[in-house]
Design goal:
This protein has 672 residues and is an alpha/beta fold. Helices cover 45% and strands 14% of the residues. The chain has 26 helices and 23 strands. The chain is globular, with a radius of gyration of 27 Å. It binds a DNA duplex (15 and 10 nucleotides) through helix 5, helix 7, helix 10 and helix 19.
Length: 672
DNA sequence: ACTAATGTCCTTTTT
DNA sequence: GGACATTAGT
């Protein structure tokens, strides 16, 4: 039966992981705790999908299965594949409980809102909203105008979040991750106290609250039992990137580990900054006495790529050792390309990308990866100049654009009248209303007991719009359109590039049409915003070909035929902020590993000799000489073809260069 | 009281 | 080059 339905195509290890468990005497399928260590490109998604399919075929009801993934897209992909593998009987199967920790938490909280003292229409704050709320308290406490600079709102939120997710002391968070803020411990405590109060008063939950509320529900005897009893099997993808709060939730769902499957790769743990701890996956085996299955056969990359990746990870400590072996065969050696600077780097990548396209590799099978979002700036200029379409993932988000925030603020306020942040933003859209006017209008509205009929913003049309939106009798369909119609002239008055922005609003309307309710729309958008920015000239139509630009973090789980990694030098890999901290350095190494293992056949590591410092540079010198990445040890470079590229000409490393060496600048640089 | 213009200081990665 | 505070102009 296996060969026909795909199980026959799994290798032995994959099949072992997919089918682990057995029916017991009562005919019920049971499985003990299982840890699948899945190296990059070893068919993890496929294996997990097969496991889900196996469970279904063994009689587990789809709604008795909880599948936790890192993104919603991963959940959809998994569901689709599992349904296909499971065969005819399950072709139409949907997994009602598949999603991220945060989205599942949201659903559970909505379901039990009354027992948590929340109204049905609580708001989920996205990052920006949470930071704005933090800023309100920051101002109130007078921290915004101290002689010595207090951390900014985003930093405050990051500290708060880190502490919540690590479940440790604030002092530990500060010492660990924010040493430059350590002196503000007392003030930060006051700030966070105020922030929590504000959230409660506004009926608003931030990302961390979703997890905190879930755990609180699990800690309640009756409710916790009720929730744990919902599922027989819990499967967690990307387990290496869970934090201790998430681990605690899992423990309470499946205290013995019975029915619990976790899948991940400790070598790809790259979310420590978000308080994920690789300890979770490293200690899972001991904690639960789990069966461990390791996948090492790599179906993605050629051996040349894997040799470099293996060599890189061999130098790391504390891990489940694995040697990735290519099923696809040898392939060319990855290249380490030295270029003069940013501009040369961009020119090199463009030249190579086009060359590849000539060879028949379409643009969208090629990706440029980088450590931080702005590293692609120069390249983007070059791409626009040369008229090459691209899409960028990671970095600046759709939701951070002012006009998108404006439009959403109207809906958010209508959805939850107490949402002060949304109200504040919405009211100031009225011409002639600024901070003071907004404050006045909101206070009066609050005093009236949140009655929309009493709202006096200064514009009758605005008042009418809000009352209409907030009226429970108003159907969701058409609300976004009406918002857009009211808002468009406001936008045209305030911002330039109005046509590009108008396009974003149309896209918003398109998304709105796919969701059944306003609450679903707002929550979805907060929890799973569109990943790519399309604010640049090249907005690829669907039938066109486009190059992919992505941060390494956003490239997780993906693969491309050709991959180019930018700025592979000290300062980026590893990031300058990781210097001197062993644990952070290890994460940086894993980040480079993730970047490398995205490549199927062709991998170029590009290393500029000199790069420009945009921020934080003291006056004067605007560039810095990047040292070779410390991860490129002899053991690693031995597997690389080293090349120097200048002015479109390529020569092997070590050959004499034509350009003069700027020794004077180097000498000065040492003392600047 | 609102808006526009100027000045100062910057920790990356994101559910 | 962007966020945020402060100042000047309406």
């Amino acid at each position: 039966m296996d060969a026909a339905d795909g199980f026959g195509r799994l290798n032995d290890r994959q099949r072992e992981a997919a089918t682990f468990g057995a029916r017991t005497g009562d005919g019920v399928f049971r499985a003990g705790p299982l840890l699948v260590i899945a190296g990059a490109g070893t068919g993890k998604t496929n294996t997990l999908a097969h496991r889900v399919a196996h469970l279904l075929r063994e009689g587990v009801a789809p709604e008795r299965l909880l599948l936790l993934t890192f993104t919603r897209r991963a959940a959809e992909e998994m569901t689709r594949r599992a349904a296909r593998v499971a065969g005819a009987a399950h072709r139409a199967v949907r997994l009602p409980w598949a999603g991220t920790f945060h989205s599942v938490a949201n659903r559970l909280i909505r379901r039990h809102h009354a027992r948590l003292g929340l109204p049905e229409s609580f708001s989920v704050l996205d990052r920006g909203d949470a930071a704005d709320l933090m800023d309100v308290v920051r101002h109130e406490l007078g921290f915004s105008k101290l002689e010595k600079r207090f951390p900014r709102k985003d930093t405050c939120l990051a500290i708060y979040s880190h502490r919540v997710n690590t479940q440790g002391e604030l002092a530990a968070t500060l010492a660990d991750a924010f040493p430059w803020c350590a002196e503000w411990e007392a003030e930060l405590t006051r700030l966070f106290r105020g922030y929590v109060e504000r959230k409660l008063a506004n009926h608003a939950l931030d990302y961390d609250d979703l997890l905190l509320y879930w755990r609180a529900m699990m800690e309640d005897g009756a409710l916790g039992g009720e929730i744990a009893a919902l599922w027989d099997h819990v499967l967690v993808d990307e387990y290496q990137d869970t934090n201790s709060l998430q681990a605690e939730i899992l423990e309470r769902l499946k205290p013995s580990g019975e029915g619990l499957t976790v899948v991940g790769d400790d070598a790809q743990a790259i979310y420590a900054f978000r308080a994920a701890t690789v300890e979770n996956i490293l200690s899972f085996e001991r904690r639960f006495g789990a069966r461990v299955v390791t996948l090492e056969a790599n179906y993605r990359s050629t051996q040349g790529v894997l040799d470099v990746a293996n060599a890189l990870m061999r130098e790391s400590r504390r891990q489940y050792r694995k040697e990735l072996a290519a099923v696809r065969g040898e392939g060319p050696r990855p290249r380490l390309v030295t270029v003069a600077d940013d501009r040369a780097q961009a020119q090199y990548v463009v030249a190579r990308v086009l060359e590849r396209r000539e060879e028949g590799v379409p643009l969208r099978h090629q990706a440029v990866l980088f450590r931080s979002s702005h590293h692609s700036d120069v390249l983007e200029l070059e791409l626009v100049r040369r008229d090459i379409p691209y899409v960028k993932y990671g970095g600046l988000k759709f939701l951070e654009a002012a006009h998108v925030k404006d439009a959403l603020a109207l809906l958010r306020w209508a959805d939850n009248p107490r949402n002060r942040i949304a109200a504040w933003r919405a009211l100031q859209l009225v011409p002639g209303t600024g901070p003071k006017g907004a404050e006045r209008a909101f206070t009066a509205f609050e005093a009236s007991g949140w009655r929309w009929a009493v709202l006096k913003s200064g514009s009758r049309e605005f008042d009418a719009l809000m009352a209409w939106l907030a009226d429970p009798a108003t159907p969701w369909a058409g609300q976004m359109q009406r918002v857009r119609e009211w808002y468009t002239p406001v936008m045209e008055r305030r911002y330039d590039a109005a046509d590009v922005r108008a396009g974003d609003l149309v896209q918003l309307e398109r998304i709105a049409a796919t969701l059944a309710t306003r609450e679903a729309f707002l929550t979805e958008l907060a929890l799973d915003p569109p990943a790519a920015t399309s604010d640049l000239a090249a907005d690829p139509a669907l039938d066109e070909d486009w190059l992919v630009l992505s941060t390494v973090h956003s490239a997780k789980g993906q693969e491309w035929e050709a991959v180019y990694v930018l700025n592979v030098s000290d300062g980026s890999f590893p990031s300058e902020y990781a210097a001197g901290r062993a644990d952070l350095l290890e994460e940086e190494r894993r980040l480079l590993y993730v970047a490398m293992t995205r490549a199927r056949s062709s991998l170029d590591l590009v290393a500029p000799l000199k790069y420009y410092v945009t921020a934080q540079s003291r006056m004067g010198d605007r560039h810095v000489y990047g040292a070779r990445s410390r991860f490129l040890t002899p053991a690693v470079t031995r597997r690389l073809e080293e090349v120097v590229w200048a002015e479109g000409i390529e020569r092997p490393a070590g050959a004499p260069a034509g350009a003069p060496v700027d020794i004077a600048a180097r000498l000065r640089q040492m003392w600047s």
